[in-house]
Design brief:
Blueprint (H helix, E strand, L loop, with lengths): L2 H23 L2 H21 L5 H29 L3 H6 L7 H19 L3 H12 L4 H8 L3 H22 L1
Length: 170
């Protein structure tokens, strides 16, 4: 199938694809982004190989992208909420905090940064990929060439270090 044939097909299917994505992600802007990504992914796939059943392939690609997006959002929520003790969350300085609370938060941040700087390069990479970029243990393990169990153990150690700093500052 040529690119122009796919473009014509995609234009015809765009409204139903967009509706399907909006039902899945419940956000029009995100659905538009996923629709664009679907177009790019399918275009790349068609350049590499022929697809016999284009419509199901396109809709499945869009669905997979939406599910990946939802999984990443859930993983981010879990990371932000579940991996941090409630007391630590409550101690984070906000705009209305007192000078003392702000100073305490700044000292805590400096100590955390200092502790994280002492990690091995691999541990720093695991922390960055997991907590800042939202990658799964499997994704991190594959990118670093280690087992998911190793990633989990390293991350547990890193989080224990962070919690230790927070408790000592408490």
């Amino acid at each position: 199938m040529s690119q122009s044939q796919f473009d014509s097909f995609f234009i015809l299917q765009r409204p139903s694809l967009l509706r399907a994505l909006q039902r899945l992600v419940r956000n029009p802007s995100t659905a538009e982004d996923l629709l664009h990504e679907t177009y790019l992914r399918v275009s790349r796939a068609l350049a590499d190989r022929s697809v016999t059943h284009l419509e199901p392939f396109v809709f499945q690609t869009a669905r997979n992208l939406a599910l990946d997006h939802l999984r990443a959002a859930r993983r981010h929520e879990r990371t932000v909420v579940e991996d941090v003790a409630e007391q630590v969350v409550l101690n984070v300085a906000d705009n209305t905090s007192s000078f003392e609370e702000a100073a305490h938060a700044e000292r805590l941040l400096k100590r955390l940064s200092s502790s994280l700087a002492q990690l091995t390069p691999r541990q720093q990479k695991i922390f960055t990929l997991s907590r800042l970029q939202g990658h799964s243990y499997l994704e991190i393990a594959a990118s670093l060439g280690v087992s998911p169990s190793t990633v989990q153990k390293e991350l547990k150690l890193i989080m224990a270090i962070c919690m230790g700093v927070a408790q000592r500052m408490g």
